[in-house]
Records
---
Amino acid sequence: MKFVPLLAILLLAGCKLIDQNTFAPSPEAEPIPLIPGPPVKYDSRTPLVTIDFTSRSLAYKELLRVAVRSAQMRDANVQFDVVAVVKSLESGPPAEAVEVMRTIMAERVPAARVHLGMQTDGSAAAVQVRVYVR
């Protein structure tokens, strides 16, 4: 029992006395000013195919078919994201994106593996459709 006071002293040596400074709030950090930088890139993936619809006589279907077949040869269960990049949101996806989606499905890709999406870009002159693989 001689060791109990010695043990108590050793245990209390590592303790800290609680006072007002323990619960005092720390000063607020200075806000960091926002520095304008490059525009935010919404999708960091590299598209399999990018189709720019600046011209209505655009022949993209054969290139798209070859790209879809190549992706399917690498992975039979590949999924495709068809993303329409438009200047502003309208009432639903543009007809160009739906046409690209149908072209992909014509290559025997089930509809459940083709996903349609939209993204806005204020600097877009015309509709651009990007096809990504998952």
---
Amino acid sequence: MTDVREHDLDGIAVTEWPHPEPRYLAVVVHGYGEHVRRYDGLAGALAGHGAAVFGPDHVGHGRSAGERVVIEDFEDVVRDVHRTAALARAARPGLPLVMVGHSMGGLIAARYAQLHGSGLSALVLSGPVIGAWELPGRLLALDEIPDTPVSPAALSRDPAVGAAYAADPLVWHGPMKRPTLEAFARTLQAVDRGGDVGALPLLWLHGDDDRLVPLPGSRVGVQRLSGGRLTERIFPGARHEVFNETNRAEVLAEVIRFLDQALPR
């Protein structure tokens, strides 16, 4: 997609995929080490469904300011997402708002829903880092964080996705950093203790061959977060990025079907 607008919220770059007459607003919350323009396909599907779509590049990510991939406190990132939602609402007042969070973005979106869920009409979590995710604890126990970047092959069965990721200059290809791992550990606990999201409709998407954020650990967190209105879609053979998988059309259709049921008519 080329029809986008860029906004700057005090160093946080926000992309807007406009819609001439939207029925609702959507905020996309991206994952670790990447940026929101990797979600052009998702944004296009949502726009085609009637959404005006907005998404920030988190601090230290993509086009935003900050030391690369350093997040000292995810509560600050939640506030940035809240400012993005306020930008969307100011542009299009009175419309329902949905949030879609992937991976680390799922953690951020889950925390957002715990704090600001009354302002959401639906929540979609894709391969979310919530529940029992063991990676931060394993790495923090080491004296030195190993330089083992995310494997492009772990993202999707589509080799073009991995190739584009590996060649993307806005993607971080280095090691994880200790302050971010510490923030992950704290926020996993905060979401675990933060209560459920009540009656907020929640869609959970996950690939059953996700090796970056294994499905069983996420299930613990999703079930704790859900207030009872949980829709679960597990895709056989899919890896971490279900929106970029070989069956992406099926995944996007599930999102649209869920939103048709969740959004006010």
---
Amino acid sequence: MPTINNPAMLVDQSLCVGCEACTAVCKQIYNISKGVFRTKIHTHETGSFPEAAVLYNKRACMHCREAACVMACPTRACHKNDQGLTVFDHRLCIECNYCAANCPYGAISFDRAHNRMEKCSLCTTRLEAGKEPFCSEVCTSRIIKYGERDDMLGIARERVQKLQEQGHQEAQVYGETEVGGLRVIYVLQDTPDKYGLPVDPQISLGLQIWRAVPLAPAVLIAGGFILGANYLYSKKVQGKLKNAKQSANEE
């Protein structure tokens, strides 16, 4: 595979059959605990009989350009790599869960069994080796493509035009401009809300204010250390008092 400078994934949701091959390979390769997913197929029913339809949505990290998770992380454990993808450095993670709480797509989970945050990395190690992500490799319907973002957007626009010509007037490209532009581009045959997607995802006002505070992450970390030290000191004092009380009772 040629070098990709501005990587992106294209998922044609209009053709997804919900086979879960992407979910299965991701769970197996990354040894993710039961109930935790990096990627998962969500099913949404729309319309009513006789025009009812089932829409499938491959949900995972969208690798937002304006990433709320990166903005919220106080230690830079959640950060952007050289290719603009959102990744984790688990050595720096303090498990504060701010990344998950601020993600507009609910794409980050805490794996308690492995004691770490989990989300799709777009298989960065495979990309570095010149390979495509596992999910695009195993997709039975071949609806997942990987390449230069501009190329993926071009393919998506052509597909949307065909869908509209077939009568799907609400068909659209999702991810071109949302949250500054996503690295995961969707082809939808209906409006985003029908797929359970935010129509206009935004960075929360609270997070914007937080990021505007000078040295905010450092203040949070320092505060955490102070609280932790205070807790340990309190436990130590309580232990001494308990021992002294026991000694007094014995006398």
---
Amino acid sequence: MLITATNEAYALSLLQPPGSYGVDIAVGEGQSLAVPPQFGGPGVGLFTCKTEYVRQMPGRLCGETVDASGKRGYVLTLSTREQHIRRERATSNICTNHGLIALAFAIRTAMLGKSGFKHIGEVCLANAEYLKKAIVATGKFTLPYSAPTFNEFVVRCNKGKASAVLAAIADKGVLGGIDLARFDHNRERDLLIAVTERHKKSDLDSFVSLLAESAP
């Protein structure tokens, strides 16, 4: 069985979809399309699978149909795994909070449409590549990895610790990224940076200037 996990849904606007290379189950996170980051949650879990595994999926499935007048509508087509039907044997428990996030996600994706979704993916990638090159051009940072990236990448301080750079930037009211030494003490010079479609070129340029001023 082949299972994939995508932590940034917008990346799929530029990559081949999991189904195109035979994935059995594909999961991901759609937080960036629906809700702001807030102390670790809530998120927007994305889950899809091949037809033969549908009846083992948790949650409910909504299907498209038509009413007596031939107008398009949506109904619950498979909800036999929920707590209101299966009681203690249920595999899912849908609550109001889930529904609100699902609604936000549905509205956002409907507003974007296919072309809008792809456009934001392109903007995220372009912003990240621009920022990556600008940071390296300061001469105070290098890129420790050569693999392709989407909207997150790691830079390494040539001198000093990433935590010191972040602290200096934070004093100026800017959240500069994540010190990877929090997760691995051998990476005290590594800094994880993320870019989104909401960052303008002027924002990126200001950030590069702050990094250059703060790094030894």
